[in-house]
Request: fold
Amino acid sequence: MRKKKVGAIAIKSFALLVVLSTAYLVTANHAIAQDAKTTYPSMAPIEQYLMDRTAEIALARSAAPESISGDAEVLVLGRHGFETAVQGKNGFVCIVERSWTSAADADFWNPKVRTPICYNAAAAHSLLPRNIKRTDLILAGRTQAQVDEAIVAAVAKKELPAMEPGAMCYMMSKQGYGGDSVKHWPSHLMFFYSQIAPATWGAGLPGSPILAMSDDHEHLTMFAIGVQRWSDGTEAR
Reply:
């Protein structure tokens, strides 16, 4: 067992700890604990996690401004994992992630979770494969603990790549559902590194708008920065 579990991936751990608001990141553990009332002890039937293909493509693209997502590759979830629905032209990959990669542990099996994300090319090459593998393991019937261990082992064996320089993603959708713990993600950007010191960004210091978290097991450091507009250009309050 892990002595310290920050989270299986950065986005998932982010859901446990923070809510972004008015372009600042604030801790919200107490509110999350009070809010999470429904329990999801096991995986629901696969049909509950699937979406209409056209709707899923539109939701995935809502993660980033149209100037970015309009030419991005789009993945959709099928019965056997994520598959390419739209070929891209600009290196970005947009996807609607499900609960096992983008929700707090209380919502790990919540079939309502829909989290739109657009990865740039560097993140699509290095972070996205971890989430794809996690999804494949989940659909193969593995438990949360088994999946966590498999991802950690794959990172250690370098079967999953280290973060590429410049890896980041857009999470600017005003749509989607983050789970009962954090119902909606405020608009923000995320940046990924193969475990560096958060202090190099001034993250977490008084007055800093940057939050950072590190996972020693997956050798991953994530930085999150809130932004003041949704992907459609409207003001994010």
